[in-house]
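Sequence only, no structure available. Ideas?
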Amino acid sequence: MSWSSRAGVWDFLCRMAVPPEQGGGFRMHEGGECDARSCFTALAVASALCLDVPGLVARSGVVDFLRRCQVRQQQQQQLFAFWLGFASVPGLVARSGIVDYLRGCQTYEGGLGGRARS
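Reply:
I predicted one. C-alpha cells follow.
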C-alpha cells in the first residue's frame, strides 16, 4: 500500500472497516482491536483527505457500533471525543443524533455526565 496516495489510504480504511453484520466499526490495524478511538481516527483521516466519509460510515456500520459503546463505562470518554470529531464532518450531524446524545449526557449542574472514574 502506498500511504502517499489517497487511493492507498482509502483501500486501507476499507480493509479496516468491520462490516455491520460483524459488529461494525474500524480496526486499528490488520487483526487489531476495534474501539471508538479507531473509528474516530479512520473518519478523521478520511475527512482530512476528502474521501467518501458517508461511504465509510455505511460500509462500517460505525454509528450503530458507537451507540453500543455507550454502555461500556471504559469507552465513554472515547465516545464523547469521537462525537466531537464526528460533528466536524459537514452534513453528518443532522443524521447522526449527536444533539440528542449530548443532551442525554448533560447533568442538571450543566456539565457532561457519564465520565468513568472522573
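The two ends are 41 Å apart (CA to CA).
Hope that gets you unstuck.
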